[in-house]
Specification:
13-stranded mixed β-sheet
């Protein structure tokens, strides 16, 4: 996935990673192109500490929400690989899955990213098959199971992703991720309001938007 992301980034060098997490993707990107100048944001201090250990002085890290982004720098490219948002393939349509639950804050997040991009800059959002259930055998006999469901909560749709890890049929760990769901048309309108137009769609991989102003 990092190779495909680097292909879309092209000759750009100043990058903003939205929801950098532990920094694994950034580490892979820097192996592909050491000249990248990457800034990463996340709302989790423990994850940022892990990213700092992994990446050292290679990146600038900030504990900030994308809906309140305030960095004195403009970037060539901003991307989210699920850290803030990801597009989700359902059986019938593409939807935006967002870790930000308020529609107002989702709009603010798009606005903030636009303000931090150079004219002609790119916003890249990953696309995944998060709706699908899966069962994967890992090392040491550990089995990773994903169960995806949807719920209607106060007239809003959410994807509930349950990740379970088993060994010899014993549950070792469990994590639940909740994503606010928006229709692609609603998301597209929000992006256009922030000053983005659709540039390229690669189903199952990345959606790319161009900042027009």
């Amino acid at each position: 996935m990092a190779t495909e992301l680097a292909r879309i980034i092209g000759e750009a060098r100043d990058l903003l990673d939205i929801g950098i997490g532990t920094g694994l993707i950034v580490e892979n990107l820097l192996q592909i192109e050491p000249a990248y100048k990457i800034t990463g944001i996340d709302t989790s201090e423990p994850l940022l500490e892990e990213a700092q250990k992994r990446l050292g002085e290679k990146v600038d890290l900030y504990c900030q929400s994308v809906s309140e982004l305030d960095i004195s720098k403009k970037f060539d490219v901003a991307y989210s690989r699920g850290g803030a948002w990801t597009f989700i393939n359902s059986e019938s349509e593409i939807m935006l899955g967002s870790h930000i639950f308020s529609s107002e804050d989702i709009q603010k997040s798009f606005n903030c990213v636009a303000k931090h991009l150079q004219p002609g800059g790119l916003l890249i959002i990953s696309c995944s098959n998060a709706y699908g259930n899966s069962l994967v055998e890992l090392d040491n006999g550990i089995v990773h199971k994903k169960i995806a469901t949807t719920e209607l909560i106060e007239n809003e749709h959410y994807a509930i992703l349950n990740y379970l890890f088993y060994q010899n049929e014993k549950l070792l760990a469990q994590e639940t991720v909740k994503l606010k769901l928006l229709s692609y048309q609603t998301c597209k309108m929000m992006l256009e309001k922030a000053g983005f137009i659709e540039k390229d769609i690669n189903p199952g991989k990345y959606y790319t938007y161009l900042k027009t102003t």
